[in-house]
Amino acid sequence: MPLDLNFEKKLNKIVARDMAAFPGYLRNGSGGVETYQGEFEPPMIEEGQEQKYLKQLLASDSTVTDKALTLMYHNMRQQMFYDGNKRTAPP
Predict the structure, then answer these.
(1) Which of 15, 18, 29, 31 is deepest in the core (most CB within 10 A)?
(2) Is residue 89 situated within a structural domain?
(3) Is residue 76 part of a domain?
């Protein structure tokens, strides 16, 4: 199965099914995340932008490892889902 935003949604639905209010759905609200440096307010998620970002990343000349790490960091930083962002990000 190719890696795309729908795959990430399916993965999140599995890893966050017992913790998130809306597993498998992109976050559509605001809300801070507690970090050791204080509160972090992630940007609003726009599905079209996320699809474009993923497509560009996968088409880049980066190594597979670099793509995976870049996507993992991006997903965690964006807080794309209500819960399970670290578990959803591809290793």
Answers:
(1) 15
(2) yes
(3) yes
pLDDT digits (tens, 9 = 90+) for 17-68: 988 888 999 988 777 777 788 888 888 899 999 999 999 999 999 999 999 9
Q: Could you tell me which of 6, 31, 14, 8 has the C-alpha nearest to residue 82? A: 31
Number of domains in the chain: 1
pTM above 0.85, yes or no: no
End-to-end alpha carbon distance in the chain? 16
Instruction: Identify the helix (H) or strand (E) that includes residue 28.
Output: none
- What is the rounded distance in angstroms from the CA atom of residue 83 to the CA atom of residue 48? 20
**Short-list 30, 54, 26, CA closest to 44:** 30
Give the Cα separation of 27 and 44 in Å (integer): 8
71 within a domain of the structure (yes/no):
yes
